[in-house]
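Example S7 (structure tokens).
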């Protein structure tokens, strides 16, 4: 009876076609195969964000009178509340880091080239959404650091030529950072961003399934592969297990702090700065003189960053050269320069 029911279910759900798809899917094996695990690790951390976020939602209330208090209640009165919140905060930061490692690894492996241009573009949007998860989530405890960092961040958005003032008003839900900003960021964090990210992720992964993982072998060279299931999946699970170990250790040994409740009428504490992933941009904008020719220095900075980001996003369309071309070495140099710039200016942004 049970066997017949299971067979009926397997037949209606098309399990056989999934089984045969998994049986035939392979993953290339080469010296850089290890980098294939970072897309999966980013996915794993996203799932942890959704699960721990749902738990936090049971107690959290997005108003200036209750946000700080409900987070305080979670970490002091709810059993393991402090750990769930610490895991959520650390996992959010590790997801940004992992998505960046994933991006640079597919960049240096040139996995963005034809026919994977759309995977790269969808990936870039996923990275932007991941950064926005961090930015919107940071304000939700309504503590002093987050309140003033959000002021800095939305001011930076306000520098965008033409659309800047609309963008700042849209993000803040008015001219200043107030309770309206908090409820708006809450809506972004628990509804808009999860919905967009899930849709884009399905698109991203469907394209990876369609084109398969890129291999580094020159055309015509034999490609050695391993079965996706169970070989790659089991290795991916070991990578997830490792990521869980790192996350658990950080969350338990360095519980995420809450700080003091935000007071919108107080003056900004000295040395306020945004989260680590915005530090390089923040510090660079501070270095630009207030006037560049007849233009506002910060606006020039934002425009240059915008153009650089657009150029980076369109790499699949201007890197059409074969593997051994001179341009390849140039691109590797560009990638190394971008990483060096991000690391050095983030460290300087943290210290200065
Ligand atoms: C939320 C963020 C992201 C998640 C969860 C994610 C997930 C994945 C997964 C699971 C894979 C297949 C395994 C692998 O190659 O690692 C993959 C492949 C890929 N991803 Fe992402 N990704 C994300 C962001 C990005 C970003 C930011 C980029 C680049 C800008 C990107 C570009 C690619 C490319 C080009 C591939 C194909 C790799 C190949 O064929 O070798 N992804 N992604």
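Recovered sequence:
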């Amino acid at each position: 009876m049970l066997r017949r029911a299971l067979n009926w279910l397997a037949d209606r759900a098309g399990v056989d076609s999934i089984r045969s798809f998994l049986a035939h899917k392979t993953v290339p094996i080469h010296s850089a195969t290890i980098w294939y695990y970072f897309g999966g690790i980013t996915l794993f951390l996203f799932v942890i964000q959704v699960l721990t976020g749902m738990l936090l939602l049971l107690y959290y209330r997005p108003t200036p009178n209750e946000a700080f208090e409900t987070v305080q209640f979670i970490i002091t009165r709810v059993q393991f509340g402090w750990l769930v919140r610490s895991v959520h905060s650390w996992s959010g930061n590790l997801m940004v880091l992992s998505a960046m490692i994933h991006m640079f690894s597919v960049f240096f492996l040139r996995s963005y080239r034809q026919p994977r241009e759309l995977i790269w573009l969808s990936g870039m949007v996923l990275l932007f959404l991941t950064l926005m998860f961090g930015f919107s989530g940071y304000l939700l405890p309504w503590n002093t650091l987050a309140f003033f960092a959000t002021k800095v961040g939305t001011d930076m958005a306000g520098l965008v030529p033409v659309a800047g003032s609309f963008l700042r008003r849209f993000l803040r839900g008015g001219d200043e950072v107030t309770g309206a900003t908090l409820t708006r960021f809450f809506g972004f964090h628990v509804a808009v961003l999860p919905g967009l990210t899930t849709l884009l992720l399905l698109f991203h992964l469907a394209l990876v399934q369609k084109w398969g993982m890129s291999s580094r072998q020159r055309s015509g060279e034999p490609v050695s592969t391993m079965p996706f299931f169970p070989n790659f999946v089991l290795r991916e699970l070991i990578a997830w297990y490792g990521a869980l170990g790192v996350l658990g250790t950080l969350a338990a040994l360095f519980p995420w702090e809450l700080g003091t409740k935000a007071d919108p009428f107080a003056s900004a504490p000295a040395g306020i700065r945004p989260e680590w992933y915005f530090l390089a941009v923040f510090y660079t904008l501070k270095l630009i003189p207030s006037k560049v020719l007849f233009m506002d220095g910060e606006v020039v900075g934002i425009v240059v960053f915008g153009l650089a980001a657009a150029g980076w996003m369109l790499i699949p369309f201007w890197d059409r050269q074969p593997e051994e071309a001179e341009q390849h070495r140039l691109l590797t140099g560009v990638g190394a320069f971008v990483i060096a710039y991000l690391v050095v200016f983030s460290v300087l942004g943290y210290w200065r």
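Notes on this example. The beta strands are 26-28, 225-227, 291-292, 295-296.
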